[in-house]
Every structure is written in C-alpha cells, then in structure tokens.
Amino acid sequence: MRAAKGDKLVQHGRVVGQHDQVTEVVEVMGENGNPPYRVRFDDGHEAIMSPGPDCQVRHGDTQHQ
C-alpha cells in the first residue's frame, strides 16, 4: 500500500451495518509512500495509522476523473 499527502484512506466496516471510515492522509511517515501515515478525520482530530488489509487508498489524482 502506497499513499501520498492528500490521498484518502478508506477503512471498510468489518461488521454488518458499520460504515466505512474515510480519512485524509496529511503526512506520509514511511519511505516511498509506505505506512505509517498521519491521517485527519472528518471531525478534525489526527492519528497515526498503519492500515491493514481492510483498507484501501483513493489517490487524489484519480478522484476527479
């Protein structure tokens, strides 16, 4: 998994009825776009994440197509 600043990190719900959680990558802390990432949630708080297999990256350059 590789991401860049501005990409969206989508963590899919693991339980029926649980919604996906979308965060914005504000800093890539690993080398060559690899985790960990500093992400910002919709409510403004930030956290450091190393995404698992239930996550996907939506790259900023493909969101506007």
UniProtKB/TrEMBL annotation:
SUPFAM superfamilies: Cell growth inhibitor/plasmid maintenance toxic component. Signal peptide: none annotated. Residues 56-65 have a biased composition (Basic and acidic residues). Pfam families: DUF1918 (PF08940). Residues 45-65 are annotated as: Disordered. Residues 1-57 form the DUF1918 domain. InterPro entries: DUF1918 (IPR015035). This is DUF1918 domain-containing protein. It comes from Streptomyces capoamus.
